[in-house]
Amino acid sequence: MGHFKRNLITTALPYANGPVHIGHLAGVYVPADIYVRYLRAKGEEVAFIGGSDEHGVPITIKAQKEGVTPQDIVDRYHNLIKKSFEEFGISFDIYSRTSSKTHHELSSAFFKKLYEEGKFIEKTSLQFYDEKAGQFLADRYIIGKCPICGNERAYGDQCEACGTSLNATDLINPVSAITGNTPELKETKHWYLPLDQYEDWLKKWILEDHKEWKSNVYGQCKSWLDNGLQARAVTRDLDWGVPVPVEGAEGKVLYVWFDAPIGYISATKDLTPDWEKYWKDKDTRMIHFIGKDNIVFHCIIFPAMLKAEGSYILPDNVPANEFLNLEGDKISTSRNWAVWLHEYLRDFEGKQDVLRYVLTANAPETKDNDFTWKDFQTRNNSELVAIYGNFINRALVLTHKYFEGVVPERGELTDYDREVMAEIPQIIEKVEKNLDNFHFREALKECMGLARLGNKYLADTEPWKLIKTDESRVKTILNICIQIAADLSVLSEPFMPFSAAKLRGFLNIAPVAWESMGADVVPAGHRIKEAGLLFDKIEDEEIQKQIDKLLATKKANELASVKVTPAKENISFEDFQKMDIRVGKIVAAEKVAKTKKLLKLTIDTGIDTRTVVSGIAEYYTPEEIIGRQVSILVNLEPKNLKGIESQGMILMAANADGALSFVSPDKEIKPGSEIR
């Protein structure tokens, strides 16, 4: 910490067009919360800032698709995200939003100051305009043929079929996604932040003055700076967002990337009238927690904006994380390949800390990492339950059993006791050192080292054997165990706040200051409460449920992307009339011996009762189809299948994955009725 008086901790503003998933949590919110809780435990002054990012084109597109207003969309997701964060224990001092009045006023004033001081450059360019809709079109609102791969539905910024980045003007036959009209090119004026003018300053500020930044962050900044910076538009033609506060800028708003980081400032302003001390006082240490896709905004663009404005402090560190994958595949909101926080909280009630623990233990700190449900289960059962939970349970249960829940006096110490107690301050110091350097994974490992120490101490000293012969030795052992338990309630609180609170409840103690750890926190004679379980085992079936959910998603995605078979050649009406298709009823059904796919069906066709052999056994059992109405082609020449004469063919619809289902009338019809 050094010379700073207070801390301003910001977290990337989640985009309010969908819920939050484990990738967001592992990358940003869990590490930020651990760090903030650690600072608070040490008695430091902290403002922990979060909020929803509510402007931009994806929100207007989603609103249009659903036939609601953009405000409806952001309200829905802002409330869902805010509630999920609260339940998950992300301890924001404020969770705000960029559609707020304070935010609109502040972003507007920020832009105006830069505008009046001539910090922007004005440029006129040609952009697509939709005459019928009366508006300029954002790239995502222009669809056309990709010049690279020929995909007919490429967007104006990217073709999702071949992945090429495009300009809207590259598209062949572009049309407006709003009206379907062909848009025309029309002149439009925008304001740009000339980042190139800040290049030398940024090089010194980052590459020379911040060599201590994480290697993944420093490396990404360096490659941006080495490639040279370009001016970036700070306004765009759109009606959803903060209006550009300049004469003649009707129908324009601040570009979402420009107004979003100002959201940190407006949230702080909503939190306290004293907000300027956090943003303008050199004694404040500002830290941005973000994911890797946000590094350029927080290390290059936002600092350039703050520098241009002139009265704000700059971030001291930007400990960005890489990405978390899910079951070996990239998390994707559009493909629903994710574990959503609000669903997790419902499926694993009361298990917030298990997810916090696993995401920290697997944190993608300098490289991408993978979340799997099996690993989640293993870490819960073999670490949280078997080590941490087991130690606490045994220490407390034995204290109740032998001493009626009263912490016993500590007697004479053995060398082993001294050795164990000497290790506690070393563990605490390692946790601190790692947290100070944003190494959350290592810090958690060291913290669990204290639970391992307690667990091993109990296993080595075996008080349950000694109680018959040496009660005073057992008193000393359990006294030491209770002190370790109390230390754990402090040391693990940043990582697992719910379990730490539960543990304090068992120990019957108030929260303990960070610096009191390692001393005798719980005096002899203190009465503890009954111990419950801190963690419980997660069974295979709970995990299987989650894996099945993902497999169902995968299957749905595969089906959605299957192309429909092209139409066959035309036939004459006479050809069609030659087919005699009737409604029939299945009166009996059985499996054909020694085959996997075949059923032998007896069908009442209204003309007669006949036998048909059909390859539907993988999709239907004989019992469930008796009495079903079917469509049957009755004038097909008979065929011998597995020694059975099959007379006719049943019409089946085949799904993209090959699954078959009956083509049947939707109400009861007399067998023999013609289908035409």
Which features does this protein show?
Rossmann fold; six-stranded antiparallel sheet; 676 residues; alpha+beta; Methionyl-trna Synthetase, domain 2; Isoleucyl-tRNA Synthetase, Domain 1; four-stranded parallel sheet; 18% strand; single chain; 20 helices; flat
How would you portray this structure in words?
- With 676 residues, the protein is an alpha+beta fold.
- It has 4 domains: 6-109 and 255-330, Rossmann fold, CATH 3.40.50; 119-237, Beta Complex (Methionyl-trna Synthetase, domain 2), CATH 2.170.220; 371-516, Isoleucyl-tRNA Synthetase, Domain 1 (Orthogonal Bundle), CATH 1.10.730.10; 573-662, OB fold (Dihydrolipoamide Acetyltransferase, E2P) (Beta Barrel).
- It has 20 helices and 26 strands.
- The strands form 8 sheets. Strands 17, 18, 19, 20, 23 and 26 form a 6-stranded antiparallel beta sheet that branches. Strands 3-2-1-13 form a 4-stranded parallel beta sheet, sandwiched between helices. It has a 4-stranded antiparallel beta sheet with strand order 5-4-9-10, with no helix packed on it.
- A hairpin with a 4-residue loop joins strand 18 (599-604) and strand 19.
- Helix 12 (373-403) crosses helix 14 and helix 13 (415-436) runs antiparallel to helix 14 (440-461).
- The longest helix has 31 residues, at 373-403.
- The relative contact order is 0.09.
- The mean pLDDT is 93.
